[in-house]
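[09:14] KT: can someone run the structure on this one? pasting the chain below
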Amino acid sequence: MDEDGKYQAVELSQEHSDIASRVCPFANGEYNEDVLGREIFGSVSGIRHDDVLGFYLKTYIGHAVSGGFRDKGSSGGLVNWMASKLLATDKVDAVIHVKESSDGNVMYSYQVSRSVQEIQSGAKSKYYPIELSEVLDYVKNHDERFVVIGIPCFIKALRLLEKEDESIRNRIKYHIGLVCGHLKSSFFALAEAWESGIDPEHVKNVDFRYKLPDRPANDYAIKATGISNGKPIEVVKPTRELSTTNWGYGYFKYNACEYCDDVLAETADVTCGDAWLPGYQSDGKGTNVVVVRNSDILDLLEEFSGETQLEEVPSELVVQSQSSGVRHRREGLSYRLHLKDEAGEWRPTKRVSATDNIPRNRKKVYEGRIQLMNESFTAFHGAQESGEGMSFFVRHMDPIVKAYKKADNPLWRRIARKVKRILSGKR
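[09:31] RB: done, structure tokens below
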């Protein structure tokens, strides 16, 4: 982990560099998500393809209704419900997922669970840096069947590793993907807790998706625990009251995330995410979008349909639920690739082409997001070194946020909204 709270790959020896590049989800330009998806799912009966979803059999919106999975999860609870069902039906022996760590140096890490209770202890999204190497050592030393839960680049990395390592390929039977906006540095959790009243050195844990009663799904809180004035403290703070939690700002984002074009974990057997759609996000209990690519998962959903409430929906609706992320990873990516090429710097080979042929205000938006990402690390270090805490961070970021908001909400759009309000009789 580097000084900015992000795990970074380190070359152990020159002899491993070629295979490491083949397995890295960004360095390997030969096997993009379309190529891998075709290898994995191309021969599945009834399979279809979408430029955003990748290959898919069916798409759904819904939630778990049994076992308390929805209440314990970030949204609809279907990720842990499916993992538990794979375990209960003897399709796997164990689940590899992220849980609270016993290591005092990190809050969360990949671990192995063998019961429903253990699986549920890892419920909810963890906006925190994680890595797979330790748990994969466990897989190599245990001849068992596993299901892995992960974000898109982690699932892709596993698929690439499975092409190189037979033992990993034979033992990881299923891959459950999570829709991903971007991966956060550990600074994100520390900053949220710090702004809630717990100093970074005294933070124990942050629940990033604490559901608020009678509030919409997108109006949630964090729950931070730690020590304050020598006593245990627990703070619940709505994310709307924190300066760091606007996902569009991209604070504490891994730079690699700016060069990813896979929002919906296209190489996973099934993908789940939040249903950010009218009519669904008003339900504070949470609702999932689901993309099924593996017929075993489809059979599981059909066999235990009484334990879920699922509505089959057009694939376009699932894409719409992630429209902001898709635009950033396609149009925005094409411009970021152009900026790299213009600067003569290395960048990954992606499925979108580099271009600056996008509207001027959108260029400013994407440039602003790069600045917000980079300056958030500078501001956090400054908050620590100055002794001023998060007030320094907010003051440092404020002019950058204002410039970004101006780009993201240009004058013509503000005028159009005002005219619309006037015409509708509102002031």
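[09:33] KT: thanks! The longest strand covers residues 203-210.
[09:34] RB: yep, looked fine to me
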